[in-house]
Amino acid sequence: MLSLFAQVDQYIEQLVANEDTELVMARQAISKAGWADQSISPVQGKLLQFFARSCQAKRILEVGTFGAYSTLWLAKALPPEGKLITIESDQEHAEHAIHIIQQSAHQHQIELLQGTGLHCMTELLSQRGAPFDFFFIDADKPPYLEYFQLAIKLARKGSIIVCDNVIRNGKVLDETSNDEKVIGVRRLNNYLKDCKEVTAVILQTVGNKEYDGMVLAVVN
Ligand SMILES: C[S@@+](CC[C@H](N)C(=O)[O-])C[C@H]1O[C@@H](n2cnc3c(N)ncnc32)[C@H](O)[C@@H]1O
After folding, report:
1. In this model, does residue 160 exceed pLDDT 80?
2. Ligand 1: which of 73, 89, 212 to mutate, judged by most atoms within 8 Å of the beta carbon?
3. What angle do CA 195, 65, 131 make, to 5 degrees?
4. Where are the domains of the chain?
5. Is the pLDDT of residue 149 over 90?
6. pLDDT (tens digit, 9 = 90+) per residue, 99-116?
7. What angle do CA 135, 138, 142 make, to 5 degrees?
8. Per-residue confidence at 1, pLDDT binned at 50, 70, 90?
């Protein structure tokens, strides 16, 4: 039987977070590829859209594309002149995601950079382009703090930064954990305590996915 959290997630999904055909196709393609689904849930996709819309995002940066599922949710929040850059280090994931993106009505608004998050974000910084309005950080956990600090440098006042998977089934409570993912997200979470550059909160997330959480930050 589905847990109560999963049932309520489905209830919310059918009310306000229905997948369109592109999102259904992206999710099905992940299972056809034989991969465990690392994507966010539909309700979390809608939450990202909500934040992107609320800061009127015209430029979005995502770190961790996987099957482009979150990419598509976010691209759908852009105005016609908007642009989304998504970064993926794994070649197989990147090639798969490009194939999915090419089938989207938003394909001309999405650019996939293949490389590590740290390398690509540093490159973007050196290009001194327009600031990004919204960031979704959802890649490897050890450099989460560095991703966050780079995001602040690539942002403007009022930009929103969301970082996924920062509670990890409550494992973040274990100060002595030697799990590199826990250590990585704890470095970011601890940094927020005295960070004057953002106004931040950490939201616990329940639903279809494992018990986890997201950092939500707005740049001061
Ligand atoms: C949790 S999945 C992303 C899921 C996606 N955001 C979604 O919700 O549809 C994490 C992705 O980050 C990628 N990744 C891992 N290390 C990375 C790195 N150093 N730089 C960029 N991407 C990385 C993985 O290959 C994987 O595809």
Report:
1. yes
2. 89
3. 45
4. 4-219
5. yes
6. 999 999 999 999 999 999
7. 115
8. low
**Among 76, 140, 205, which residue has the most ligand 1 atoms within 8 Å of its CB, making it the best to mutate?**
140
Q: Is 39 in the pocket of ligand 1 (CB under 6 A)?
A: yes
Residue-by-residue DSSP string for 105-163: TTGGGEEEEES-HHHHHHHHHHHT-PPEEEEEE-S-STTHHHHHHHHHHTEEEEEEEEE
CB of 116 sitting under 6 A from ligand 1: yes
The alpha-carbon radius of gyration of the chain (Å, integer) is 17
Q: Rounded mean pLDDT of the chain?
A: 97
| Among protein residues, the one whose CA lies closest to atom 7 of ligand 1 | 39
Single pTM value for the model? 0.98
pLDDT range class, residue 208, cuts 50, 70, 90: confident
- CB of 86 closer than 6 angstroms to any ligand 1 atom: no
Q: Is the CB of 104 under 6 A from ligand 1?
A: no
Distances (CA, A) of 143 to 90, 149, 173, 207: 16, 10, 19, 26
- The whole-number pLDDT of residue 114 equals 98
Residues 6+ apart with CB under 8 A from 79: 58
215 lines ligand 1 (CB under 6 A): no
Determine the CATH number of domain 4-219.
Answer: 3.40.50.150
